[in-house]
């Protein structure tokens, strides 16, 4: 028998279980690890046998963790994040400091990129790496320093600071409004509406917006998209009216590409936050970038 210094079981089994605990699904963990679900199951059983305790409960649509499984998973998450961060620092030694940030395409393109030139000008020694993800739950990644997130400010395993609150309004192109005059909320409810929908979409919908403004409607004339960037492009092309979050559409309104359709605005109960893992400290460069992001909200 091999005498391991730290009395640890197979590192492969530990890595496999960590993926299962994070995904709560054997098949998705297998896809991440590029092995078969059977191989994942065998590794988990091997770990359970070595520990003498069950770590997961197998369900018809995934798995859940036992009390012991949660304890092991939490320790592994923290340990792997710290190992990953250290290895990244070693890889980057001798290079310019870098910070990675994750957000949706809409937030990256419409909020961050128009402002980022000011950061580059002030901090030419820091490289900002951008990662795009449309999945709200795609956050447990040790290669990501900061995240721009939209929500209520509460995410397990993350610290969060609000960048800014949001107001929601209806926007359309000047060409569309020339051909489809909309002067009242009742007329807005009858207009062609551009809507973003999807399993992970938690932003305000047209039905919610009209309800908040006290506008009655029966059936809306909605064209659906699964990307906010594409929906806004359709609005700029004169295809209908889109909902606009002030932090995202203000530059398009300033340039004249979009106009506010009515005076109605709705305060969004959710907001834009910058978040980071509560299991590892931010690097000095990440702190600088986080504080700059917060300052942009104050300027807005």
Count the E strands.
Answer: 10
Work out the helix count: 11
Q: What percentage of residues falls in helices of 4 or more residues? A: 40-55%
- Summed over residues and divided by their number, the pLDDT gives a mean of 87
Largest sheet: 8 strands, mixed
- Tell me the radius of gyration: 24 Å
The helix-and-strand class reads alpha/beta
Instruction: Give the strand order of the largest sheet, numbering strands 1, 2, ... along the chain.
Output: 4-3-5-10-6-9-7-8
Strand percentage: 25-35%
Q: End-to-end span in angstroms?
A: 63 Å
Query: What order do the helices and strands follow?
Result: HHHEEHEHEEEHHEHEHEHEH
Low-confidence stretches: none
Shape: globular
Could you explain how this protein is built, in words?
The protein is of the alpha/beta class and 300 residues long. The protein has 11 helices and 10 strands. It has helices at 11-23, 26-33, 37-51, 67-92, 105-122, 174-179, 185-190, 206-212, 228-236, 246-254, 284-299; strands at residues 56-59, 62-65, 97-103, 126-132, 146-151, 158-172, 193-196, 222-225, 241-245, 259-277. The chain has an 8-stranded mixed beta sheet, sandwiched between helices. A two-stranded antiparallel ribbon has the order 1-2. The protein is globular and about 75 Å long. The N and C termini lie far apart (63 Å).
């Amino acid at each position: 028998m091999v005498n391991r210094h730290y009395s640890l079981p197979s590192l492969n089994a530990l890595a496999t279980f960590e993926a299962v605990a994070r995904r709560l699904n054997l098949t998705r963990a297998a896809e991440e690890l590029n092995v078969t679900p059977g191989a994942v199951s065998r590794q988990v059983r091997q770990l359970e046998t070595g520990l003498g305790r069950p770590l997961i409960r197998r369900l018809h649509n995934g798995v859940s963790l036992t009390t012991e499984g949660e304890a092991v998973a939490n320790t592994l998450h923290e340990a792997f994040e710290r190992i990953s961060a250290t290895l990244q620092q070693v890889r980057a030694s001798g290079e310019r400091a870098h910070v990675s940030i994750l957000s949706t395409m809409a937030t990256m393109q419409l909020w961050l990129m128009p402002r980022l030139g000011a950061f580059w000008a002030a901090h030419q020694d820091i490289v900002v790496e951008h990662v795009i993800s449309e999945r709200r739950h795609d956050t447990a990644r040790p290669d990501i320093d900061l995240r721009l997130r939209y929500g209520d400010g509460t995410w397990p395993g993350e610290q969060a600071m609000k960048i800014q609150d949001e107001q929601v309004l209806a926007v359309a192109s000047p060409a569309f409004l020339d051909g489809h005059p909309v002067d009242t909320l009742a007329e807005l409810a009858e207009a062609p509406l551009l809507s973003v929908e999807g399993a992970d979409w938690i932003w305000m919908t047209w039905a919610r917006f009209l309800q908040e403004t006290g506008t009655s409607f029966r059936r809306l004339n909605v064209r659906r998209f699964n990307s906010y960037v594409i929906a806004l492009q359709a609005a700029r092309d004169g295809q209908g009216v889109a909902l606009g979050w002030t932090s995202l559409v203000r530059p398009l309104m300033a340039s004249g590409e979009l106009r506010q359709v009515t005076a109605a605005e709705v305060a969004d109960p959710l907001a834009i936050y910058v978040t980071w893992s509560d299991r590892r400290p931010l690097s000095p460069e990440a702190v600088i970038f986080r504080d700059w992001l917060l300052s942009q909200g104050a300027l807005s």
